[in-house]
User: Fold these one by one.
Assistant:
Number 1:
Amino acid sequence: PTNQPTLMNFFKKK
Amino acid sequence: MFEARLVSSGTLKKVLDAIKDLLNEASFDCSDTGIQLQAMDSSHVSLVSLSLRADGFDKYRCDRNLTMGMNLASMTKILKCANNDDTVTVKAQDDADCVTFVFESKKQEKISDYEMKLMNLDQEHLGIPETDFSCVIHMPSGEFSRICRDLSQFGESVIISCTKEGVRFSSSGDIGSANIKLAQTNNIDKEEETVSIDLQEPVTLTFACQYLNSFTKATPLSNRVSLSMSANVPLVVEYEIPDLGHIRYYLAPKIEE
């Protein structure tokens, strides 16, 4: 089973 | 005053086709260097980054920085009114609440203009760090599109595995499994058909097919695509738009629970 993280798990908001 | 002119409306139609699958609306940030767009899809799993350089336009003027929030369905309706070989000029006054698209036929016998209301969009910009990727794959965009389409019949996810031998795309689901292996090619005669891999270290990542298929809507913009991957960071799928700029898509990898 795999989970789909969002981009906020990788990039910070400006 | 903002004014940007392209000889072919077809190019702008292709750019719109490349983003409207993922975005309902988007802010176009205009400055004297060109037009930029950065926006995430509604689920915040993928991000579109579009850059159109001022010198890629046939005419470009931007006196003051301007952000134009556009509903992409409305923009699509307007661009449907243009023939692909019509010239398109996008115009807006400083601090305007609307944008005008002017289409001119080749022989100038038909000139039409369409005004569209602009939107105030709350945009969340992400800071994307420069990354040295573990592998960068360059391949024909049509081949990548075909692979995504074929594999999405089998499962919701595609595993992309890149080694120095080549790149493997695989998917599995209820009906069975599928594997597609591409080897690096050394065909210098047909450079646009080559598959090349810049590899620092092997990488295997899993991605949702749905987003990859949306990214391939950019295929008509370029006959090449690059896939940049490192362990545990988002994939970057990039299409160069010849003489005009680029469109990049970022996609968060799936992770094991």
Number 2:
Amino acid sequence: KEKKNVLFIVADDLRTSLHCYGDQIVKSPNIDQLASKSAVFQNAFAQQAVCAPSRTSFLTSRRPDTTKLYDFGSYWRVHAGNYSTLPQYFKENGYITMSVGKVFHPGISSNHTDDYPYSWSIPPYHPSAEKYENAKTCRGSDGKLHANLVCPVAVSQVPEGTLPDIQSTEEAIWLLKAAKEKGSPFFLAVGYHKPHIPLRYPQEFLKLYPLEEVTLAPDPEIPEGLPAVAYNPWTDIRKREDVKALNISFPYGPIPKDFQLLIRQSYFAAVSYLDSQVGQLLDNLDKLGLAKNTVVVFTSDHGWSLGEHGEWAKYSNFDVATGVPLMFYVPNITAPFPQPGKRTFPFIDPFDHVPGKIPPGLVSSIVVELVDLFPTIAELAGLNVPPPCPKTSFDIQLCTEGISIVDLFNAS
Amino acid sequence: SDVEAIAYSQYPRPADHPQWNSDLPHLRDIRIMGYSIRSCDYRYTVWVEFNPLNYTANFLNVYAGELYLLETDPNQDNNLYNHTEFVNLIKEFL
């Protein structure tokens, strides 16, 4: 049997604010197009709503209580157990495995190497423009540059004249071409940085969301019965210059309503920018003739609160923080091969697109988890599904605390 | 196929009231863990004592709880944990 390639796309802090998940505001035509040809899980949840614990969890298919990672401060192989990862499993099964952007959380939680060489055949790629993400590159109303939360930019005027996700798309396309030429099966993981804060994106995407059409969250007040321990005080938001200037009370705020609208507008714009990057990546996958033998998986590390319950950011157990988009495109399974002369993933320009023209995919409302990714992707690619972990699995290198959800595709 | 589909999530806290490190406490500062069960019908969360030295949760020491019924409360704004009619259901979860 011919081995299927895998293109694994991970967004950062992307909640299910996508048109294909029923959001009527967000314009996400390229991800919607992917969804229309995929099995789409509407109730998929992360195991912990913060980057490093979630990524370590789904890349090892173990829950945080088994990775022993609840913060950003340790590397599971030395701190918990020498667990095999999803890309490592593919590498050991003859695949070239490649990482672009933020796949593992950088830093000590992935041994300052993104778990290379265990997980990857070649050193992971990080865009050079990443170092400017938290620099003062946002033009304020005073005409000066700031490190703001809300940060639409003129791309030609920022350092290096580009943004990290644009560079990641370019690198991923280059790697697709190289992998095709080499002819061996590949597992390419592309980790986009958006819509993680700062909400820094090409300013033209603001045009998709006129401020007068942006609304507040449906429930912007802190619920009366919410225990104090459940509330997250969104400290990362408060540290940005534009938010700091608002002099918001700690811990409960609230953020002034006009600024809430600006945050929501920029989050949606950042999602559309992400969508364009995903669209260009898939367009090139298709142009290279790889869409016919590549499984495409799209998800996020966790969600993000946009003012619901008086909360912002991640750091909670609310659905808006734990819920993620999750979809699997499997050639000739979730969508037929295209007719001769037709394309599977042509790029859709969000500025020209008329919403509502893209049909839904195979939609399932069954509750699933990100620990299910590892066994599911393994099965879709034709590899053996790792065995279930026993109750205690610290000394077992390969097992899963999730399940393969491939059988659920039929129920979609 | 006869088992209810459930997702488990968790979140750590350094204290039972919000403070500056509540969003992202270091391991050594974690004192409470919020464990959630999410089904298609409800989200149930219990915030319990957590020992960062041995990574264990003490479900006998409950700081707070949350119960949301998603059919009538999809945004999870109406916490029913302390409502007497759900006492037996909550005992079952624990």
